[in-house]
Structures are given as structure tokens and as C-alpha cells.
Write a sequence for this structure.
């Protein structure tokens, strides 16, 4: 059963059938395809193209198929090219020649566009839940180990002490943006192409808006040529997915290095680790590594889809068939990655002591010291230079900034071009002041702005995140 | 003047300076950088970190620099690494050591994030105007040559007749989605990172929200680590740009082929054509070809940026410097492509006669004929098969469907398994009925649904597009 | 059976097992894995790690498994993670605990690297044959329709007449370069990593070179860390595949447009066409469109793989598991595309008359006319300008260059700044000379250089291609 | 001066000129363009198209221009579109109307293809030198700190001890493959397209092979249409560059993490570090980070170029202009990255003590212990399991494998299903034997295969690398 055999003389080449069939991939659309067909039959009934008895028989047949598909009872026949032909053939088996009226006023072009938008809509809803699950895991860990101090790094070098909860909440921000992008994509995608026909618009007086409402769409596409040529919603989703995977890959990278015994910041649970076939000592954070690797592949799916579309004339071109593998695989990858990373974070053990030790390493309170000098009147650039020289001296001496001798401090201030610094050199207790501003807790508390790592600020941010998650 | 030289012993390697400097690229941010600095100075004043006289002097200096930059009078010094250090050094030259207080409570990490968001916001506003200009060009052409019929194609083969205006309005739909994506990107990007410091949050009691308001931001970033690590807005913009360029590349592809004399549908104006250095006969639509080629490069910019971010730990990493070339180049490419394509469309000459001739080729009214049979009771699948066999016969005879002999039609219907078709074979005038349903104008008129190509529907859509553009 | 369970307390999480298993993909390596294991057992025997009876029993077991796999009799157990564990478990079922000695002196890291190189080597050999098949199809068509003239185009506009055979032979050149790249990839890939262990080198006195010889490798990898970290051969193959697919996509694009009735240059056989579910008139060159679309996806596979590797520390990281889907899918896509395009070209019907008509369109002999003026002493730039003005006049008059009036030619020459042109204006018969140089056959014959389209040159090139293909 | 203005009525649009000009980019080809022109003039002379005096005058003019360009004295005029027109115009200024004969028998299509191949050839030669420089830096460091032991990692977790020299030599292997790919690319690219004309072959009896020899090409392209349509050599180079940058990015990633004080394995010299504008304590390995980020952009350049070519019909299309920015930028990025990374490695300080400490962490000798059990008759899988349980016990006890109590070892062996293991449990001194096999030096020495990390093997490999580099 080739639905278009009427004017063809030769029978097809099996290589060609192999090359062009899509049933192995697009069967994922089966339920969406049936849902769309049911609404289309209702529409044909409303338009008087089908009589009520025909409508009832077709709907009954389609509902039967829906049950079969949901139960995994429908066998896909590779000879029937794609999901649409498989379902129409199964319908014909079930209800006879009346099935031949199903495709009235419809083309596979507007049909598949409808199916994909239905599929995408429910997939986005599932992913939104999965992202929320990941947020809950992060917030949960932030809650459990909220007060732990760790070295905030830039350029992978110790920069300033931050709270682990603060670090984890940065990921929650990213995930919220991911949700925002998904919501925008959903909104733009949620319009009905049904009734656009092959490209010119259906040749029957269909009430497209009524059918759209039945399918839960917010409206109808406004131009039939665009409706069948458009895969913007695939690109937009893949862009959101690629960025979402990149976010997870950044966390995965951190987990991976933090698990190395040199860091020892965290221990991935056995259930999220694997071993080696040869080395009995190994405990590897494989899921995190796979997330990192798969992020590259979702990015590739996005650029591949843009490559498919580039320079494509309007109207359906068969190139568009190549939208499905990247779309389906990327959505599955993102969903599974969210699930696994949430589990990994839920069961992650944090070594508070090692984190705090590391937070003190690398003179991470130097900025706080410079800020303390600024508050005593030294210009920032000069304060930065003075503290830089103190760091260099402390490093040579192998001590921390909080162990500097008074004289070192005084000398550094005295040699400055800034009169304010030189005045400060003469003040009583300046060494002590510098030493005390170099404490981890002091440095933390100093970052007391919205979004800063001061403990009170982080507690507020955490409470807000929990409240938002609880509201759902 | 390296702003961080305090603890470094050796002087830098010139190769390293060459390799790391960004002033050649990030000078595009100069005005945004100064705008951000002015707001930051006001903020330091509000926080009491600077006294009013210091604020006034810094602002005066910065305003002077702003005028210099706007007038192209500031010479960029490659020895000064980046735009931030260049501007701070120029300020020092202008107002002396007080300039050393400008960077109080700020890091280049939150500074550059602020600059880029300001730059992106105004760039998006410019691009939105450019897209509207392109829409106006398309609508203008649709208006001038609105009634021209052309062959709608799928798989690049003639499918059904459509109006040129309908085809052009498909692009307007795409462009409107581009605008929607830009608006979403702008909304998510328009928050202020200023006050996030290097990554922990500024060590001064800055009122981040007041500064954000001064800069026209809708709010502040909620997490300081995220604020300096985040380049989502770059990715999101590049995704919108890549898709926007793909839209233009689809039009460019059509223009290019339609200009080939075998089609001869359109003639690109001399002003938008180039010739050959060797072949005196050539008239080439180069701008369209370049748009097509550059679409691939903007896609590459997007995937490159995702590649930069993939697996990057939080906190600023120098890898992030690689965000600027793809961002700046892609925005410029998109803007210029919109401008040039708008001009090309504005001056495009359409050959109505050739388009209409082509619309009749390839049996484009066959669907309308099948639909006519359906309206007379034949099931769609059977009508499709019957008309397919009529097309094959007409093709063998070298005639159109509207020239079929009555007997051919009767025979085709009579041989059907469908009783309705066989009944039809006996009806008086069935040949005539088939012939008349095979006219171009009849086929056009039949697509009378929302978004369809029926002339009345297209007129409505065109009027709606014009009204929307006029409202702006 | 997890081969690394010794030190793990918790049982795995099913989500993690789902996420990390690769048996669905890497079963493609089964025969290569067994081949490698057989050689490794021989090596362990040579090293005295296994005694002869153990060697014999292991080899017998592995040979049995090889037969089972080849016959499709081995059932893959998803609980057993990957192909290596599946095969080792099947071996244990077959020969008992002795199977536990198979993995002595080997890690999955060097094992999988070996498997992939064996797989790639045989895949390259298959692809080389497929490329030759495609070359034969092109040469066959060039032979059948060798003398047909068509419009050579640049910028998609008519440029100069060329022979169809010449155009087709351009693709043969591309395909030969594809073969060259495959051969280079094969040469660099064909070394044995076996004996590199997990990363430090096997802990047994294995004669790596003897094992490499047994496996048909040209040598051994020189550094064990590199041997397990290296996926250069995957990238190199994917780069060759992406470019090979791009070559096919260029041909596919041409076929697609040439099939449009406006061109009508070729007719794709029914067996390589499909129709429409809605439009009875359609005949679509779907395989060509799919080739074009899939070219984008193979390019994406390449950039995805580079993304996986970017920034990856040495040693096996689980990210590397993501090498298989792009590799396997891209090789399959390329192979199938070559097969289908060869069939399409073999059965392609050429419309000689329409091609020749089109070759005369667009003043394609203008360059030949300019060259004729040059031969009569006019400087090239001036000849180009003069002929350009003649083309413009002929276009206004709606005639060909071979129909220009004598006076037009004389006027154009006389108005030149070039004394040689003005002299020529006075020569007898200059109009006739210009007209005669404007013939298609004359223009063809003029391109009489190596690689040019002069019929004799093309015949030589075709003969050379046939001879090369016959030699194989 | 537009070289193709003859048939154009309107003057160009400035937006179009801006959009299409390439002189800002392709001026990099100036010397290659002149070199090609000189050879072409000689060819025209040999063909009798130019007389000896014309040849001499043109050559003299071109040589003068060559000197000007080399000295930076030629001002590029943006009104003159590209490098070819700029040079021809400059030649006309210098030698008058005779310059109008230079372009006889040549098109910009074969001209630019020639220029790019000449440019690529010399660029590849420069890059080959830069790669060798990088190899020397790695070998130099391996020589200085050859004996240092470090933890070989897989999955970023400690795996087995390896020598630092061994790790560094893995990169030398990668770089040698990079050189191999460049050499293959050079070989395939080094043929002359000159004489192919616009696409049909030049219309003059040019001896293409003689001109090719003069330009140092190994031969001529075999098909004129292919010659002007082909950018395979650009793709092939970009693929080599992308992989080469990925190699450097892997090293950069390691350097970056190894510089973190938690590792403290290496210290990047001040000259290759930068600081922070805000944090006085920072010392950042920026060049390594930039290499990592730029690797993503070179990969993007590759995929962009494949995107430009995908689906492009044969003949020059203006899309091909987009080959230059990715090609030029990627080559420059790779060259600079090699230079800077070589400098960074040359000046890198290694902390031997910390590396060795880390090498003992994570039970890295467990494999050596399992191998020792195998040598005493235990099957590998069982040995792996037993040692895995010993690692778990040692971890619980917080001790190394070399500190296990005899009883622990005996118990683990005795509980095995393997009779050989149980026999071993009864042997005298088995605990001592296990302890001694757990030493770092013993584990190192055990990897005594070609390419293994046994010190003697590494010394051999290092000597071979030095000898190879010395031979050049």
C-alpha cells in the first residue's frame, strides 16, 4: 500500500524503500497522530464532508487503534514507510474502505507538522517536571550542607570563599532560565497547522480554529505555506536542549574533578559510580562523564538541524524528515540526564572539612583585605597593588595573610604613592586590622549584596527557591 | 599598566600579550562600558564609598571619554589588553589618580557581563527594526505583484498553484517569529549583573537595584556566581540569529534559482547584481548567495559558543572571552543581511507571465480535481488513485488535465472498485466537470480556509500584515 | 555480572544502568571484539600466561561464539552493559570459569580501541567499494550521454556551455579525493592498541607486535596513554564522511532542481521517486532530498565528536562512549547514500534537447566572443567591456549574439578607447567573425586545455576514468 | 573600476558593495596572487598570447607590486571589492592599459583557487614547524622532569602510577599525527587550478603543466569544473586544525587543573599567567584557558565551512567567499596556540613531590597486586574481585594496600571460589608478597611492554623522540 502509487509504472527499488522509510523513528508520534486524526474527523464531520455515521465509525476505529498503540499491540510494518501510512492501513484493516476517507482535506505535510507539535508540547511538559526535580535535588543538597564553605574559583584558581549553597543555587538560576526558554518555545509552537493541506490550504471548508481548540492549541498557523515548511519549533527546542545540557555538563565537570582525591570535596554514591574491568581500585563517576559527552551531541543535533534547513526552498522537502532523529534523541537525552543527575546530587556526600580547608588556600581573602584598606581611605587600585605585594610576601614565607607580621604590613603601606596608604601605615593596630579582615568568615560576610554569598543573603535565596518549588 | 601586576615578578611575554588581548574586538563595548561605569559611580556615591566631589569628578571624566569615543577620538592602546583597561587608563590620564577608585566594588567579571547585556539590548532593538524593514519589503512586493500566480512546490516539484503574495507572506510569518525570539531573549537578558563582583558579590553595601534602574534593566541577577558565569544570553541570541539567517537563506535560495533563465520568475536589479571578471554575459545575484553562505557561518558561531561553554566550571574562565567574536560578527551579519535583502526585494522585478505559465505545468490542479470527485461522493483515497491514473494518461498524451477527452475520464471512473466512482462514470457531463475543476483559478479559489491561498484569504492576510506594520 | 563489583557496597540504580549501558549500540563491534580476543589469547599463550590447553579451550569457545554472532544467535543481555561483558559472559556460560582468564593483561580501554580500529578498517574497505560503484554510475552516464551540451553555470546563472560528461567527471574527481582521504585514515588507524592495558601498559610480557600482525595491523601504538585516549581516527573518518556526504549533496541538489519541469534536464526513474499522499500529480526525487538533508547530519556528527573530545584530559573518560553513535550512523548513512545515488544515476533519463536549448540561453558564448576579439589584438579588459555592451544590446533586442547586426558590432568596436578595437571596426567581415565565434560548438572547442570541456579533452578524461575503474 | 560593468545600467548600491566586498579579508592572499599572476604571464607568453615585451613589462610591474606589498606600501582600496581587483588596478596605475591583458585566459574563479592553494601550502609549512616546536617543548620537559611519577587517571580518578615523561610523550604522538594529516592535506592540495578559466577551461592554448611547475605545484587539476567548485582542501585543512586544537585543549585542560593548589602539580610561569583586576591574590593560566575556548571556535569554523558547501551546485557560487574567514582565522589561531603553549611548557615548573604523593593515592597499585595474584595462579577475574575487596577494607581502615595486615589478605583469599586462590591463602608470606607488589616502583616496572610506562621503556621512547627531532 503506497498511498501515491496511481501514476507510477515501475515498482520501487528496495534500496530506496530502505533509504526513505521512517517508521523506525516516527512511530514515536503514533499517539499524537491518532489524536490529530480524531480531531480531523470531527472537523470533516462539522464541514459536512463526512456524515455522522462515517464520523462515528472512523472515531471508533481510531480509538481502537489508540488503545492498541498504547498497549504496544500494534505491529509496525516497515513496508509501510511511515507512521501515518501504518496507522491508515491498520485502520483500513479494522474498518474497511471507509478508512480511505480519513485523509480527505489533509496532506501528510500538515499532518506530520501537527503530530510533531503535539509531541513537542507533551515532551516540554515532561521536561519541565524533570527540571523541577533537578532543582529540588540541588536545593535539597544546599539545605543539607548549606553552611559549608568552599573556594569560589575563577580561571579554576581559588578566588574568594563562597558557601556551597550559593554555588548550588547558581545552577538553580540556570535551570530556571531553561524552564523559561521551554515555556517560550511551547507558546510559539502551540498553534495548529491542520487544514494547511500540502501547502496551499485544504480544499474543503474546514473550521480550523474549532479543530485547533479540540487539540488544545492556542490558535492556528496563519499561512499554509509557512505551516508545512516551518521547523522553527524544532530548532528552538534543540537550542533550549543544547543549552540545558551545557548547564548539566558544567555541573558534571565540577562533580568529576571534585571527586578526584586531590580535591575530595564530594563522594558520588556507589549507585552512581562504576568500576573498571581491569583495575580493582576504580570508582568512577560515569554518569557525570556521560552527561558531559552527551552535551556535545545535543549541540551537534542543533547545528545539524539548522544545516538541514539552511537554503531549503519553501514547501515540504524530504530533507525535513531529518528533523526527527535529532529532536527525539535530544529530548530523551536531556530528560534522562536530568533524572540521573538529580539522583546523583540527591545521594552526593560532601566532605565539609576538605572544602573548608581548600577555601583558605590561595589567599582567597585578599580581596576582603583590599576592601578593608579602601574603607580606610586607600584608593582601590592602590589597595589592590599593596595587597598583591603582601600576597607575594606571604607566599614566599609560606604563610597565610592572617599570619603576616605587623612590620610587613606597615612597610607595604609606607612604600605606597597614595598618601592615604602612607597615613594608614602610621596608624596603631593596622597589622591587626589587616589580619582580622583576612578571615574566611569575615570575607563571606562582606559580600552582603543581593545575590552575594553573605550567609544571610544565601539563606534568603535558599528560602525563596524552596518556597517557589513548594508552590508547585 | 597591568591592573593586576602587584604580585607578579616576571614581565609578560609578548606572545602571551598578543594571544590574550581583546581590545581589537571588545572596543565595540566602549560606550556600554562607560554607561555602566557612570551608573556604578553613582552607586558608589549612594553607598558612601565615594564622596560627592569624587562622584562629580569621575562622572565628568567619564562623560568626556564618552564624547571622545562617540567621536572616534579615543586611540585604543593594544598594550592595554582590553576595553576596560583602556578606558580606565584614559580616565586616569584625564582626571589623575582618582580614576583608581572607579573599580572599587567591581570586577571585570561583573563589568563585562553588564557591558554585554547593554550592548545586546540595543543591538536587539536595532535588529528588530531591521526585521520590520524586511517585512515591509516583502509586504510591498506582495502588494505590487499580489495577484500573480506561481507554482507552489513541494520536493521542488510543482504541487499546487499559489499566489506569489501568499508565498511572500510565509516569510513574514517567519520574520515575526524571529522578532518574538528576540523579544524573549531581550527580556531574559535585561537584568543587571553589576554588584556581583568577581563571583562572590561586591564587598560594599551597593544598592544593586537602584543601579539597575539607572541602566534601564528590569531587575538584578539573583546569584553572583551565576551572574559572572552566565553566557546564556549570548547563546540564546545566537540561536535566534542562526534561525533568522536560515530564514533569509531560504529566500536567498529561491531568488537564486528563480533568477536562472530557465525559471525567469524574477530579475534582480542591477544594483543588487554583480558580473564576472571573465564572462561578459554574467549577471549574478551575489548578495543572495552571500546570505546563504553566511547563514552557515552564523550557525557555526552558535555551535562554537555552546562548545566554549560545555564542561566549563562556574566562575569566570578566560574561555568566555571567546563569546565576543561570534556574538558581534553574527549580529552584524544578520543586520546587514536584512538590510541588503530588503533592498533586493524592494527592487525585484517579477515576470508575471512566466510564473503563471509555470503554475500550469506539472498538473498542479490534480488535487483540486480529486477534491471535486470527493465532493461527488468518491472516497478520497480512490479519487487520488483515479486522478493519478488520469495524470499518467495526460502525461503520455502530452496534454493538460483540462484537455482530457470525456472517454478517458469515464473509463478511469468505471474501472474503480468504489461504487460511487462507477456511478459517477454514468453521470452526464462528468468529463466537462473534471475539466472545469482543473483550472488554475478554480484550484486557487478552492483553498478557502484560514491561511489558505484563495485570493480573498490572501488579501485579508496581506491587509492584516500591512495594518500591523502601519501601527508601528 | 558487573566485572568491577568487588569494592562496591550498594547495588546500582536502574536509572544509572539505563543511562550508561551501550550494548544497544556497540553490539556492532561483536565480531571485531571476538577477533581481538582470539589474538589476545594467542598472545597470552605466547607469553606463558596461559598454558596450551587453556589457549585451546578459550579459542574453541570464542570460535563458537563467533559462529553464533555471525548467525544472529547470540541474545544480547541489556543487564550486561556492553558488548565486551556480554561476550565474556557468553563465553563463561560456554566454557566455565576459565573465561575469567580472558581479560588477563587487558582492559576494556585497549580492548574497545582495538575493536573500533578493526571495525573502521573493514568499514573503510566497504565504503571504498561503494565509492567506486558511484564512480562507475557517473562514468556510465557520461558514456551514455557523453556528447550532450548543457549550460555550465556560476552563481546559478548560465556561464559557458559545457559537456554533461565534463560536469559528471567533476564528481568523479571529488569521489577520488574521498577515496584518498579514506586511504590516509585507514593507514593512520591501522595500528594495534592491544597491550596498552588501562593506560599504563599491560603488566605481562606480551609481544604486542606479534599480536598486531595476527590482526592485520601495520604496527603497534607507541604510547599506552595515547592509545587509550586517542579517538583521532574517529574524527578523521567523520571528516572524510562529512565531506563525502557534502559531495553527494551537491549532486543531489542539482538532480532536484534539474528534475523541476522548468529545467526538465533529467527524469529520475519511478523506482527512485515517490509521490504524495494528497496530490495525485506528484513525482518527487526523495532519495536526493534525503541525501542532502543527511549530509547536514553527518557534518553534525563530526562536530559533535570534536565537542566530545575538546578539553578532555588524557586517559579513558566515559565521554568517549559517545564516539560510537556518530561513527556507526555516519558510516551507514554514507554507504547507503552512495548505493542509492548510484542507482539513481544509473537509471537517470537525460533530456538532451532541453539541455542543449538551455546551453544557448543567457549568452553563454560571450566569453568565446571576447576571446576572439583578443586574438585579433584587443586587450582582454576592453574586449570584455565591448562584448558586455553587445550582450546588453542583444538582450534589449531579444536576440542571440549570433544574430547581431554588423552595424552593432562595428559601432561597439569603434567607440572603444583601445586603438586595436577601433582598427578592428574597419576590418571587413568583423560582424560575421563575431557571429561565428558565438556558436556553442565553437565555444566548446575553444576550451582546449587539460581539464577543459573541449570534446576531445573530455573524451580523453572519460577514457582515463574508465581505464582506472577497469583496472580494479 | 568594476571589471564587469559593461552590461550594467544602474550604479551599484553602497549597501551591496559593503556586503559583498572581501578586500578586508582576502588581502592576506596578495603575495600569492602576485606570484600566481607572474606565472600566468609567463604562460601567456609561452602561448603566444602576449609578446615578449608585454611579458617583460607585466612582470616588471608585478615584481614592483610584490615589493610594495611585502613592504606594506600598497594601500587597499575598499571600493575595489577584492584583492584581485586591487592588484590589477594598482598594476594599471603603474604600467598603464597593458594591465588590461593580465586577465586574459583567466577568471577570478581559477585565480582565487590558485591563490588559496599557494597560501595554504606555505601556511602548512609554517604550522609544521610550529608543531615541531611544540614537540620540542614537550620532549624538553619530559627530559628535565623525566623520572617524576604521577597518578595516571581514567575517569579523572587515580588509576595507575605513570611517569610524567610517559604522559607528555602521549601528546607528542598526537602532534605527530597532526603533522601526518597536514602532510596529506598538502599533498592533495598541491595541484594547480590555473587554466581552468571560469569553469569550462581557458580559451587559449595554455601549457597548464609548465605553469604549475613554475609555481611549485605537483601537477594540475584534472577537471575545470571541479577545479573552480572545489574547496575540499579548505575543509580538509580545517579538520586537521580542529583536531590539532582539540589536542592542545586537552593539554590546556590538564594544565589548568594541575595549577589549582589542590593539585599543585605544576606552576605556570608568571610570564604565562595573568592576574585579576579585583582580586590581588589571583594567578591565572589564561593562555591555557584561551586555547581551550578557541578549540571550540576552530571546530565551529570547520562545521561552518561544511555548511557553506552543503547542497551547493557546481561552478563558483559566491557562497564560496565564506571560505576565507574560517580558513585564515583557524590557521592563525592554531599557529599562535602552538607558539604560546610551547612557551608555557618550556617554562612550566613541576612539583615532583606533590605528583609522587598523589600517585600513591587512590590505591593505584591495585592492578599490580591483582596481576601478582594472577602470576601465582589465580584467574584474573577472581584476582580482580579479591583485590577489590582488599581495597574496600583498606579504605575503611584508612590505610594503603602496602599496609594491609597478613590476616586480611589470607581471609580474602580463603573466601574465594577459585581453588588457586584458596591454595594461595595457605602459602607462607602471602601477605608480604601482596604488600610488596603494591609499591609504586614495582607497579611502574611491571608495565614493561612497547609503549608501556616502565622506566626503561619510557627512556627508549624519549630517546627516539629526541633523535627524530634532532634529525630535522
Amino acid at each position: 500500500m503506497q498511498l501515491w502509487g496511481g501514476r507510477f509504472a515501475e515498482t520501487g527499488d528496495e534500496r530506496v524503500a530502505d533509504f526513505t522509510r521512517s517508521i523506525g523513528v516516527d512511530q514515536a508520534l503514533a499517539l499524537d497522530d491518532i489524536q490529530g486524526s480524531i480531531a480531523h474527523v470531527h472537523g470533516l464531520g462539522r464541514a459536512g464532508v463526512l456524515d455522522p455515521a462515517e464520523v462515528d465509525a472512523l472515531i471508533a476505529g481510531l480509538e481502537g487503534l489508540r488503545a492498541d498503540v498504547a498497549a504496544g499491540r500494534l505491529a509496525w510494518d516497515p513496508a509501510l514507510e511511515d507512521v501515518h501510512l501504518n496507522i491508515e492501513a491498520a485502520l483500513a484493516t479494522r474498518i474497511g474502505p471507509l478508512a480511505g476517507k480519513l485523509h480527505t482535506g489533509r496532506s501528510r505535510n500538515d499532518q506530520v507538522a501537527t503530530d510533531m507539535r503535539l509531541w513537542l508540547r507533551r515532551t516540554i511538559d515532561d521536561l519541565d517536571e524533570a527540571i523541577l526535580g533537578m532543582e529540588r535535588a540541588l536545593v535539597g543538597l544546599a539545605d543539607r550542607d548549606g553552611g559549608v564553605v568552599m573556594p569560589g574559583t575563577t580561571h579554576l584558581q581559588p578566588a574568594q570563599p563562597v558557601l556551597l549553597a550559593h554555588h548550588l543555587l547558581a545552577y538553580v538560576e540556570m535551570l530556571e532560565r531553561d524552564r523559561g526558554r521551554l515555556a517560550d518555545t511551547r507558546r510559539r509552537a502551540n498553534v495548529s497547522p491542520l487544514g494547511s493541506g500540502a501547502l496551499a490550504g485544504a480544499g474543503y471548508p474546514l473550521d480550523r480554529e474549532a479543530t485547533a481548540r479540540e487539540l488544545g492549541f492556542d490558535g492556528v498557523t496563519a499561512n499554509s505555506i509557512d505551516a508545512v515548511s516551518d521547523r522553527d519549533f524544532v530548532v528552538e527546542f534543540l537550542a533550549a536542549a543544547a543549552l540545558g545540557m551545557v548547564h548539566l555538563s558544567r555541573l558534571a565537570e565540577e562533580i568529576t574533578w571534585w571527586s578526584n582525591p586531590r580535591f575530595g570535596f564530594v563522594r558520588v554514591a556507589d549507585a552512581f559510580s562504576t568500576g573498571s574491568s581491569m583495575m580493582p581500585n576504580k570508582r568512577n563517576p560515569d554518569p557525570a562523564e556521560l552527561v558531559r559527552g552527551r552535551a556535545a551531541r545535543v549541540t551537534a543535533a542543533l547545528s545539524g538541524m539548522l544545516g538541514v534547513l539552511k537554503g531549503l526552498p519553501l514547501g515540504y522537502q524530504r530533507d525535513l524528515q531529518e528533523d526527527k532523529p535529532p529532536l527525539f534523541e535530544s529530548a530523551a537525552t536531556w530528560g534522562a540526564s536530568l533524572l540521573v543527575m538529580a539522583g546523583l546530587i540527591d545521594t552526593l556526600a560532601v566532605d565539609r572539612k576538605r572544602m573548608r580547608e581548600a577555601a583558605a588556600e590561595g589567599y582567597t581573602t585578599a580581596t576582603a583585605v583590599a576592601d578593608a584598606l579602601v574603607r580606610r581611605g586607600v584608593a582601590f587600585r592602590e589597595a589592590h597593588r599593596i595587597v598583591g605585594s603582601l600576597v607575594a610576601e606571604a607566599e614566599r614565607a609560606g604563610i597565610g595573610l592572617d599570619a603576616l607580621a605587623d612590620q610587613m604590613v606597615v612597610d607595604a603601606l609606607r612604600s605606597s604613592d597614595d598618601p592615604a596608604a602612607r597615613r594608614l601605615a602610621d596608624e596603631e593596630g593596622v597589622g591587626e586590622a589587616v589580619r582580622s579582615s583576612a578571615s574566611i568568615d569575615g570575607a563571606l560576610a562582606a559580600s552582603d549584596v543581593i545575590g552575594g554569598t553573605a550567609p544571610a543573603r544565601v539563606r534568603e535565596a535558599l528560602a525563596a527557591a524552596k518556597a517557589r518549588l513548594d508552590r508547585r
Notes: The radius of gyration of chain C is 31 Å. Chain C has 20 helices and six strands. The longest strand of chain C covers residues 157-163. Strands of chain C lie at 149-154, 157-163, 191-192, 219-220, 266-267, 349-350.
